[in-house]
Design goal:
By secondary structure, the chain is mostly beta strands. The protein folds into two domains: about 70 residues, no CATH class; about 130 residues, Jelly Rolls (Sandwich), CATH 2.60.120.260. It is built from no helices and 14 strands. The chain starts with about 40 loop residues before the first strand and ends with a strand. It comes from Tigheibacillus halophilus. InterPro entries: FA58C, Galactose-bd-like_sf. This is Discoidin domain-containing protein.
């Protein structure tokens, strides 16, 4: 016997629909205790020692490949996204929220085409964005693998508000790309205290071979949840 279909179930996180009220919240018991045990909402990011990339206020590359392969991807702490230039040279400028003495930085190669990796560049610092001090120069650098991070250290005791990479040569192609840039002042920073696992309605995947980026899988938004469950000893 065929049962008639009388109800349609659907969910949506579109702008004009009822939004969830529990965003970034943790369910609590009647006594107020969080109903989560051994759950850490901080997503550990494997970065370089003394990382201060989160203090980068703005970043600008002289060439981008919009909408998805743009300069902001260089500091999003996600090596699955990348920045792509249509030139074999590039200038990338970063402004810090406050002056910092950078003594180390790292480049992470992007997902494809080794010939697009930077090979020769000079690193500069400035306090006005116009007069630049040379801090480090590299040549004939090779990234042997994809998503490979290489760290470059140098001596510097001067604090600057602006930093700039002048990439003068890549590994041979007409395009240049990177997945991530990290800056360091060489000082160890303690990890943040544990926080609860969080859920929020986001903009969907940032990189995918089977889905459109920056949209939900069935609409314009996507439900995201993330965190780590810590094993008790």
């Amino acid at each position: 016997m065929k049962i008639p279909f009388t109800r349609i179930f659907f969910t949506s996180f579109e702008k004009d629909d009822l939004q969830p009220t529990w965003e970034d919240a943790v369910e609590t018991a009647p006594d107020g205790e969080e109903k989560a045990s051994g759950v850490d909402g901080n997503i550990a990011y494997d970065t370089i020692q003394g990382d201060i990339t989160d203090q980068v206020e703005t970043i600008h590359a002289d060439e981008n490949n919009p909408p998805n392969e743009i300069d902001s991807n260089l500091i999003d702490r996600n090596d699955q996204t990348k920045w792509l230039s249509h030139k074999n040279t590039a200038v990338i400028t970063m402004k810090m929220s406050k002056p910092e003495a950078v003594v180390k930085y790292a480049f992470t190669s992007a997902n494809d085409s080794q010939g697009r990796d930077p090979a020769d560049w000079t690193f500069y610092g400035s306090n006005d964005g116009e007069n630049w001090t040379k801090l480090d120069t590299r040549s004939s650098v090779q990234f042997e693998k994809r998503f490979q991070r290489k760290t470059f250290a140098f001596k510097n005791d001067k604090k600057f508000t602006y930093y700039r990479f002048d990439i003068t040569k890549n590994a041979g192609e007409k395009l240049t790309q990177l997945a991530e840039i990290a800056l360091s002042n060489g000082v160890d920073v303690p990890p943040p205290p544990p926080s609860p696992m969080k859920s929020h309605a986001g903009n969907g995947p940032t990189s995918s071979y089977t889905a459109k980026t920056h949209v939900g899988w069935t609409g314009k938004k996507a439900l995201t949840y993330q965190g780590t469950h810590l094993k008790k000893r």
